[in-house]
Amino acid sequence: MSEHALVLFSGGQDSATCLAWALDRFDLVETIGFAYGQRHAVELDCRLPLRDKISALKPAWRARFGADHMLDLAVVPELGQTALTSDAEIIMGADNLPTTFVPGRNLLFFTAAAALAYRRNIRHLVGGMCETDYSGYPDCRDDTIKALQVALNLGMDRRYVIHTPLMWLDKAQTWDLSAELGGDDLVELIRTDSHSCYLGVREQMHAWGAGCGSCPACQLRLQGWARFQQSRK
Fold this sequence. Notes:
Layout: E1 4-8, H1 13-23, E2 28-35, H2 42-55, H3 59-64, E3 65-72, H4 75-78, H5 105-120, E4 124-126, H6 142-156, E5 161-163, H7 171-193, E6 205-206, E7 209-210, H8 216-231
Parallel strand pairs: 1-2, 1-4, 2-3, 4-5
Antiparallel strand pairs: 6-7
C-alpha cells in the first residue's frame, strides 16, 4: 500500500531534517507551513528554496515530492502576544517558560495539518518536536504529542500516525541524523539555508548558520553544532 506523509515544514533545521527523514521512508511527501504572525517571518522566505534544494539532493527524493501548502493562522497573535509574535523581550517568564512560548501553537498546527491530511487522504504527520534539547515548551513533549494523536484520531475518525523523529535527539544528534540521511551536502544545505533565529536575523553568518547568536534558538543550534563538530574529529 502506498504511504503518504505530510511534514510540518517551517524552513528551520529541525523541520528540514524531518523532511529528509520522511523522504527516506514514504512514497509521497507533502509539506505544510504556517504564517502565524511570527516575529521571524523570514523563515517563510527560506521554506520553498530550501525545499527545492533538498529535493535535488537525491533522484529518489525528487520523485517523492508532493505539493506544498501554506496556511494563514493570523489568529494566533490575537490569542495573546508573546516574544515570538511581538517585539517583547525574550526572557524566562514567571511560569519557568521562556516568553517565546506560544500557547497551543503545536496543537493548532497539528490540528490544521490533520484537517488538510483528511481531505488529501494522508495518514502520516511528521513534526520536529523534541523534548531533549529544547526550551521547555509543553506542546513539544512526547506525552502531549501522543495525547494529541489520540484526540485527532477520535475527532476525525481516522488512524493518523504522528511521527516525531527528533523527540529523543539533542541538537548534535539532529545534525548527525541529517548527515546520515543526506551526507555532507544535506548538512551544509541545512547550515546555510535553514532558519532558526527567533529575531529573524539572516545578515550575520556563523559557523552553524545565520542568526543573532544570542536568542534561545541560536544558542541551541550553536551548542549542537559545536558538539557535532567535536564528535567528527
